[in-house]
């Protein structure tokens, strides 16, 4: 069964900490995405990547960066965590030219 | 950017009831998808439906692209249908694959 795995289900971090959220897919997909989900707002795109070492900003990139050194892994980095980054973070991958998105189970991050 | 509006925001159903969820979008799209997020947070793709009608068991969906809306029908609802239903579109004028999500419809099916 195809999978997108997010390293942590729940995380609690302190304001100002550097936070790494990891996402790994085993489907050899070229395209990977990071979304955040907030009540009443749905999912909003933070960053995405169409290939290794390639990254593009989504709709809300401020305060985030990403890294894609290997095809299967796409990391989201909060350079200096703030309380307004408390949210559910979802990673997704999809093969180029298709629309069969597969989502990870999410990381619920709380910044205190 | 494109606006995606879902209605109703919340829906409470008795088991066995039928319901219709609606998604309106403000501009032309490459594709439209419906997702279900279960109470544990896992998002599952239900339909890829840029136009026309599709059915999968008790669920069906219709998209009228020329009028910029899509409908998701749930028939004979079951408690396992509870969760949040999202509509997501890939705008025609934007980079491929950048799904824009609506705010979702929270569905609770009671026994």
Can you characterise this structure?
The complex is a heterodimer of chains A (112) and B (111). Chain A has no helices and twelve strands. In chain A, the strands form three sheets. In chain A, strands 2, 5, 6, 7, 10, 11 and 12 form a seven-stranded mixed beta sheet that branches. A three-stranded antiparallel beta sheet of chain A has the order 3-9-8, with no helix packed on it. In chain A, strands 1-4 form a two-stranded antiparallel ribbon. The termini of chain A are far apart. Helices cover 0% and strands 53% of the residues of chain A. Chain A has strands at 4-6, 10-13, 19-21, 23-25, 31-38, 42-49, 56-57, 64-70, 73-78, 87-94, 102-103, 107-111. Chain A is mostly beta strands. Chain B is an all-beta fold and 111 residues long. In chain B, 0% of the residues lie in helices and 59% in strands. In chain B, strands 2, 4, 5, 9, 10 and 11 form a six-stranded mixed beta sheet that branches. A five-stranded antiparallel beta sheet of chain B has the order 1-3-8-7-6, with no helix packed on it. Chain B starts with a strand and ends with a strand. The A-B interface holds A 31, 33, 35, 40-45, 48, 50, 56, 58-59, 88, 90, 92, 94, 99-103, 105-106, 108 and B 1, 4, 9, 31, 33, 35, 40-45, 48, 86, 88, 90, 95, 97-104.
């Amino acid at each position: 069964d195809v999978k997108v795995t997010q390293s942590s289900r729940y995380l609690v971090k302190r304001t100002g900490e550097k936070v790494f959220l990891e996402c790994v897919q085993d489907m050899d997909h070229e395209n990977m995405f990071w979304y955040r989900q907030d009540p009443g707002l749905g999912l909003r795109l933070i960053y995405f990547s169409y290939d290794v070492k390639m990254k593009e900003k989504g709709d809300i990139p401020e305060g985030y960066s990403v890294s894609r050194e290997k095809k299967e892994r796409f990391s989201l980095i909060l350079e200096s965590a703030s309380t307004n980054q408390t949210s559910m973070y979802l990673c997704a991958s999809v093969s180029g030219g298709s629309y069969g998105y597969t989502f990870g189970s999410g990381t619920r991050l709380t910044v205190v | 950017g494109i606006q995606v509006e879902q209605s109703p925001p919340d829906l409470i159903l008795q088991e066995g009831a039928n319901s219709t969820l609606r998604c309106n979008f403000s501009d032309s799209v490459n594709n439209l998808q419906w997702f279900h997020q279960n109470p544990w947070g896992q998002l599952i793709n239900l339909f890829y439906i840029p136009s026309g009608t599709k059915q999968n068991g008790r669920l069906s969906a219709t998209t009228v692209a020329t009028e910029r809306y899509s409908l998701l029908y749930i028939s004979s609802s079951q408690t396992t249908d509870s969760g949040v239903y999202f509509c997501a579109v890939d705008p025609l004028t934007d980079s491929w694959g950048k799904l824009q999500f609506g705010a979702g419809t929270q569905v609770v099916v009671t026994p």
